[in-house]
Amino acid sequence: MSSKLKAIIFDLDGLLVDTEPLWVKAYAKWLKKHNAKNDPVIYKKMIGRGLKENMIMAKKYLGVKGEAENLLGDLREILYNLVSQKEDILMPGVLELLPKLKTYKLAVTTGGHNQKGAEKMLIDSGVRKYFETVVSSDDVKRGKPAPDVYFEAARQLGVKLQSCVVIEDSVNGVEAGISAGMSVIGVNANLQDRNALAEAGADKVYSSLKEVEL
Questions:
Q1: What fold, for 7-17+90-211?
Q2: Which backbone phi and psi does 35 adopt, to 5 degrees?
Q3: Domain map of the chain by residue range?
Q4: Close Cβ partners of 208 (under 8 Å, ≥ 6 residues apart)
Q5: What local confidence, expressed as pLDDT, does residue 214 receive?
Q6: By C-alpha distance, which of 104, 96, 103, 111 is closest to 183?
Q7: Could you name the CATH architecture of 20-83?
Q8: Which of these is catalytic: 11, 138, 148, 193?
Q9: Residue-by-residue DSSP string for 9-36
Q10: Is 113:89 a contact under the CB 8 Å cutoff?
C-alpha cells in the first residue's frame, strides 16, 4: 500500500463482527413472517448491499409486501434478537489488528445497520474506541455497491479518497471501494469467496484479519 495511506475504512458484518450466520437465520424468519420464499440467486446479490436496496429487491423479486422502511426495521429487529443471544461476536483477528493501527484514522461503514445499531455492536464488543466514525448507508443516498458510504466516511475523517484503504468481505463492498477511488483489501475465510474478491478487483486478499498487511 502507498506510504500516503492515512485512513482505513472497515466493513462491519462478516469482517469485524460474526453476524453473517445470524443474518441468514434472521432473513429466513423474516421471509416466513412475510409469506415469501428464499431465492438463492437474489440472496447472493443482496450480500454486502445496503439494506434499503435489499428491501426494494425483496419487494420486486420475492413478492414481499409492505413499506421498505417498515420491512427494514422488521428484519433488523429479528437480527438484533439473535445478536443479543450471542456472547462473542467479534471475527478472528479483530483484537490483534486494531491496536496495531494507531497511526491511521479508522472508520466503519455498514449497509445492514443504522448508525445506532452499528454503534451498539461495536460498544458491546469493546472495539468502538478504535474508530473515529461509523457511517450507515441509511444516511447516504445509495448503499453499496455505490461508493456513497465511503465518500461520507472520508469526508468525516477529513482525508482524501486516494489516502484511504477499504477492507471488505463481499464483492459488493469491494466494488464500492473501487468506485470510491480507494485501495481495497478483501478478507474472507472461504476460498471461493476470496477468489471472487480478487476477481472483483481487490488489491490484496486474505483469509483472516490476522493476516492483513498494509
A1: Rossmann fold (3.40.50)
A2: 55, 45
A3: 7-17+90-211, 20-83
A4: 91, 92, 93, 187, 189
A5: 87
A6: 104
A7: Orthogonal Bundle (1.10)
A8: 11
A9: EE--BTTTB--HHHHHHHHHHHHHHTT-
A10: no
11 in active site? yes
Mean pLDDT over 74-90 rounds to 91
At 88-107, the pLDDT tens digits run: 899 999 999 999 999 999 99
Calpha distance 165→157 (Å, rounded) = 13
For 14-49, the pLDDT digits (tens) are 999 999 899 999 999 999 999 999 999 999 889 878
Structure pTM?
A: 0.88
Average pLDDT over residues 132-151: 94
Flag whether pLDDT at 52 surpasses 90.
no
- Tell me the DSSP string of 32-49: HHTT----HHHHHHHTTS
Q: Which ranges in the chain belong to alpha helices (H)?
A: 20-33, 40-46, 51-61, 68-83, 94-97, 115-124, 148-157, 171-179, 191-200
Distance, in Å, from the CA atom of 178 to the CA atom of 161, rounded to the nearest integer, reads 10
Side chain identity, residue 74: D
